[in-house]
Structures are given as structure tokens and as C-alpha cells.
Design brief:
The chain is mainly alpha-helical. The chain has one domain. 72% of the residues lie in helices and 7% in strands. Strands 1-2 form a two-stranded antiparallel sheet. α2 crosses α5. The protein is globular, with a radius of gyration of 17 Å.
Length: 109
């Protein structure tokens, strides 16, 4: 069955997938890290899963991935890290991720 919607025509049996859906491995990696920081409990699992869902709802995966990469390079230090610390557009990418993480914490913890 085909339905007409305000957003166009679509198959009634189609499954809606969020626009900014993150790969399962990225979500799992976030949850594992979050649980390591917040306890290996069922409650932490629920809160950490909620948190990555919130992050995914406000930050496209490409931006999340960019910010994670920047933060990883910064942690290694050295000459490459200095470049990542000095570029305003890269600092802003990290800031957007941090704001998304704060939103996740506010909503879920």
C-alpha cells in the first residue's frame, strides 16, 4: 500500500530510519566507555544508551565522528595535536560534541 504524506509518497510498509542514525558499533563503543566511567550496572547501561540516543538526535554522525577523531589526536599529543588545538573550526566541532554530551547527561542521568 502506498500512502501520500506531507513529505511525499511512501510505502506503508517502509520503516522510518532516523536521518542521523549512528552505526551500531559507534553506539556500542560510546555505551562501553560511558559504562566504564559510570559503573557496570543495568542502570548505567540504560542511562548511557539514552545518552548516545540523545547525542545522535542532535548531532549528525559525521560531526560526531570528526569530533571524536580530533579528541583522539589531541590525546596523543605531539606536533599533530598542536594543529588540532589551534584551528577554531576544529575546536568548534569538539565544542558541539561536548554540548550534545551535556544534553545527553541532562536528559538521561
Amino acid at each position: 500500500m502506498v500512502l501520500a504524506t506531507p513529505f511525499g509518497i511512501r510505502d506503508a510498509g517502509a520503516i522510518d530510519v532516523p536521518v542521523n542514525d549512528y552505526p551500531t558499533a559507534a553506539r556500542a563503543d560510546y555505551v562501553f566507555g560511558c559504562m566504564a566511567a559510570n559503573g557496570q550496572t543495568r542502570d548505567a547501561l540504560q542511562k548511557c544508551s539514552c545518552s548516545i540516543d540523545v547525542i545522535a538526535s542532535v548531532l549528525p554522525y559525521e560531526e560526531y565522528e570528526d569530533a571524536e577523531t580530533i579528541m583522539s589526536v589531541r590525546q596523543r599529543g605531539g606536533e599533530n595535536a598542536a594543529m588540532f588545538l589551534s584551528m577554531p573550526q576544529l575546536r568548534e566541532k569538539v565544542a558541539r560534541l561536548k554540548r550534545a554530551q551535556i544534553e545527553g547527561e541532562l536528559r538521561c542521568f
